[in-house]
Automatic annotation (TrEMBL):
Organism this protein belongs to: Candidatus Venteria ishoeyi
Limits of the Response regulatory domain: 2-116
Residue ranges of every copy of the OmpR/PhoB-type domain listed in the record: 124-218
PANTHER family: REGULATOR OF RPOS, TRANSCRIPTIONAL REGULATORY PROTEIN QSEB
Record-given protein name: Transcriptional regulatory protein QseB
Chief place where the protein resides: cytoplasm
GO terms classed as biological process: regulation of DNA-templated transcription
PROSITE patterns, per the entry: OMPR_PHOB, RESPONSE_REGULATORY
Gene Ontology cellular component list: cytosol; protein-DNA complex
Transcription keyword on record: yes
A GO MF term: phosphorelay response regulator activity
Keyword set, alphabetical order: Cytoplasm, DNA-binding, Phosphoprotein, Transcription, Transcription regulation, Two-component regulatory system
Record's keyword annotation contains Transcription: yes
Location in the cell: Cytoplasm
Amino acid sequence: MRLLLIEDDLILGNGVQAGLHGAGYAVDWVENAESGEHALNIESYELLILDLSLPGKDGLQLLHELRAAGNEMPVLILTARDAVADRVSGLDNGADDYLVKPFALDELNARLRALLRRRSGRATPCLRHGELELDPATHTLSLAGKAITLSAREFSVLQSLLENVGRVLSRSQLEESLYSWDETVESNAVEVHIHRLRKKLGKDLIKTLRGVGYLIEKINS
C-alpha cells in the first residue's frame, strides 16, 4: 500500500515515514506542495497525508485544487491547526479525515485503515476469502483457523491481491504498492513474494496470467 506524505517538519516527517514503514506501508515523503504535485503526477498513491502549514503553497490550496481537478484519492489532513473553523474548512474543502498534532501513531494507523477500507467498499476490518482471513489492524493471517506467519512484504502483496479479488494486478502495480522511492527493488522481488505465499497458502490461491500479472479469483457462490 503506497502513500504520499507532504510534511515540512523534518523530525515529524522522519518519524511518520518510519512508523508507517513499520506498519507495512510504502511511504514517499516530500516537504512542500509543489513537490507533492510532482509526485502525484508521476506516481500512483492509495492515500495522501497532508500538512496544511507548508512553505509556499498552503496545503489547503493544494487540496482544493486536487478536488477541483476531480482527484478522488482519500486525503487525511495532519496539522497543528486545531480550531473548529480549521477542521470545518479542511473537511469542506475535500479532506476525508482531520487529525491534529500531536497525535499517537496508533491512531493515525487506525484512521488510515478506516479510510482505505471505505475506499475499497468494505465495512468490516478483516479481509476474508474462503477459509482465509487477513486482519490489517493486527497484521495477522489465518487459514482454516490456523495462524500463518508472513513477512511484511508477503503480507502487503496478499493484502493488495485480496483487496482486488477478481482483478489482475501487474508486477509493476505490486512493486509500486510495496516500495517507496528510497528503497531498492530487486528485479524478481514480486515473484519471490508470490512464490513464498504459494508455499504457505497453497499453489492454487494466486493465479498467474503470463505477461499480464497475478490475481486471486472470486469464489463462486
